[in-house]
Every structure is written in structure tokens, then in C-alpha cells.
Design goal:
By secondary structure, this protein is mainly α. It has helices spanning about 1-10, 20-40, 50-75, 75-90, 95-110, 110-125, 125-130, 150-155, 165-205, 210-245, 255-260, 270-275, 295-300; strands at about 280-285, 290, 315. Belongs to the CALHM family.
């Protein structure tokens, strides 16, 4: 039981692997705040009509949040690593905890923008007031004149109310904004507590020391940047060779000519090699030596296999 619990918690280190992730999440949140402000000023116009208010208000909060969430899922490299992993190898090498927290990582990162959007919408209160104004109980308002119902209350978010109800409009808007901001602060509190707990569990359950985990983070970042840049150069030189073979010459600028001369490309990597270095990576050690990525594992000449005595599943997901 203890071993099972330890295995499950080890994977929580996924959520806080590097400072780059936190910085990126911060930038996403700031961008979402700016977008929400622009939307509120330019695009948000409460219809001030019964039944329509509720739909429009909830749509203004929920639909952009849903769209941002889906964009976050599609934008996350781990999504496509999982797709590649399932296509090439299936999920036989994933424990239940690993599978659950793989998806948890994707959902957690994708939730930054929609949660920010929802929080800002609730703190501003405009969409909430628009959505729920028609549901305010007139009897809860002191000395509210009889004969006015949901149709009149639905117009409170706009400036389309009888003069004798102006003071009641201010009361209704104030009450609804109080509720909206209360929900917003509660959402912030819940998210903050969850982040705190995840951070604590990560530090307690990570099998790697602080310095080694920092080194692994730097390695992942450097490998990704170098791989991307080298792939760009390699593909450009290969394309230049193919174009030259077809036309007999290739039009290159000075810098591109120097690249072609400096890095001769004879061929391309076979598909099995691409498949070997593509997909989800679970941190492993071989005879006590760390393997920091699929590329690192391939470079060491180790074949693909499941976790064993010499290759233990310890830490989840490289970028």
C-alpha cells in the first residue's frame, strides 16, 4: 500500500517541473486579463430582456472560457505526445496514476486562461448582473412598487428603468455584484489552495534532488531548442539539395550557402528513429545513470522496454 501511494504521489511533480512553465502561465493569465477587459468594453452588451439575459450572461462567461480551455489543450505539446504514444505504443507502459496525472497536467495547464477569464468576469460582475437580474425577488427589496416583475428587473443592468425605480436598480446591481465578486474570490481561494497543496506534494514526493531536477529542467529546455533549430537547418539544407537536383541549381543567400557548405546532409532519418524519440517520456534510470529524454535514451542505444530492475519509472513527463 505504501509503495502504491508513493508511486501515485510521485507523479504530482508533473505540475511544477520548471520555472518556464510558471512564467508562461503568468503571461497567459495577463493576456487573458487584457482580452477580458477589451471584450467587456467593446463586445459585451446585455440584451436587457427576460430569458435572454440569463443565456447571454452565462454565455459571456462560459463560452470564451471553454474556447480558451480547448485552445490550451491543443497548444500543449503533451497532448500530441500522448497521441503519438498511444498510436505507437499504446498505454501498456502507463500506470493508472501516470495516465490520470498525464491528463491532469494537460487539463491543469489548459485551465489557466479559462480560470483567469472566469475570475475576472466574476470580479467585474457585469455578466453576472446581466444574467441574474431578472431572478431577483422583488419582495426582498424594501418598498418595491407592486406591478413590476421579471421584465422590469431584466432591464436593470441597462439605463432603461422608470425613474421611480432608479434607487432599486442601484440596490439590485450592488447585491448581484456582491454575489459575483464573492464567487470570484472563492474561486481564487480554491485555486490558490490547490496550487499550494500540489507544490507541497511535489517537493515531498519528487524522487530527484533539487539540483538534479534543476539540471533536468535545463537539459529539457536546451535539448528542445537545439533540436528545433537543428531540425530547421537540416530541413532547409535537405530541401536545397532536392531543389538543386531538380533544377540544376538553387537560389540561396550568403548565409544559406554557408549553411549548405558547412553541414552536408546526405539523407534523412528513418521513421523508426523518429518514432523512438517521439511520445511521452517517463524518467528512467539505467544502472543508476539517469536518462533525461527519449533522445537521450536513443543516443545511449537502449531499446524500448517497460520498467524493470535496471529501468525504473520514477518521474513523469519530459517536455
Amino acid at each position: 500500500m505504501a509503495a502504491l501511494i508513493t508511486e501515485n504521489f510521485r507523479f504530482l511533480s508533473l505540475f511544477f517541473k520548471s520555472k518556464d512553465v510558471m512564467i508562461f502561465n503568468g503571461l497567459v493569465a495577463l493576456g487573458t486579463v487584457g482580452s477580458q477587459e477589451v471584450f467587456s468594453v467593446v463586445a459585451f452588451h446585455c440584451p436587457c430582456s427576460p430569458a435572454r439575459n440569463y443565456i447571454y450572461g452565462l454565455t459571456a462567461i462560459g463560452v470564451p472560457a471553454l474556447a480558451l480551455f480547448l485552445i490550451g489543450v491543443l497548444w500543449n505539446n503533451h497532448t500530441w505526445n500522448i497521441v503519438a504514444e498511444c498510436h505507437q505504443r499504446g498505454t501498456k507502459n502507463f500506470s493508472t496514476a501516470a495516465t490520470f496525472l498525464l491528463f491532469g497536467s494537460i487539463i491543469g495547464r489548459a485551465a489557466v486562461a479559462p480560470v483567469t477569464w472566469s475570475v475576472i468576469s466574476l470580479l467585474r460582475g457585469e455578466a453576472y448582473v446581466c444574467a441574474l437580474s431578472e431572478f431577483v425577488d422583488p419582495s426582498s427589496l424594501n418598498h418595491f412598487p407592486p406591478g413590476y416583475g421579471a421584465e422590469t428587473l431584466a432591464r436593470f443592468p441597462c439605463n432603461e428603468v422608470p425613474k421611480n425605480l432608479t434607487s432599486f436598480k442601484e440596490d439590485v446591481v450592488r447585491i448581484l455584484k456582491y454575489e459575483s465578486q464573492l464567487f470570484g474570490w472563492l474561486l481564487i481561494g480554491v485555486v490558490a489552495v490547490l496550487l499550494f497543496l500540489m507544490k507541497c506534494l511535489k517537493n515531498c514526493c519528487s524522487p530527484l534532488g533539487y539540483r538534479q531536477e534543476s539540471y533536468w529542467s535545463q537539459y529539457r529546455s536546451n535539448e528542445y531548442k537545439l533540436f528545433q533549430h537543428t531540425a530547421e537547418v537540416h530541413s532547409k539544407i535537405l530541401a536545397a539539395n532536392n531543389v538543386k537536383q531538380f533544377f540544376g541549381f538553387v537560389a540561396l543567400n550568403k548565409e544559406e550557402k554557408e549553411l549548405v557548405e558547412e553541414f552536408p546532409v546526405e539523407g534523412v532519418q528513418p521513421s523508426p528513429q523518429w518514432n523512438t524519440i517521439t511520445g511521452v517520456y517517463i524518467y528512467r534510470e539505467n544502472k543508476g545513470f539517469p536518462l533525461y529524454s527519449r533522445l537521450h535514451k536513443w543516443a545511449k542505444g537502449l531499446v524500448e522496454n517497460g520498467p524493470g530492475p535496471e529501468s525504473q519509472e520514477m518521474h513523469l513527463l519530459a517536455s
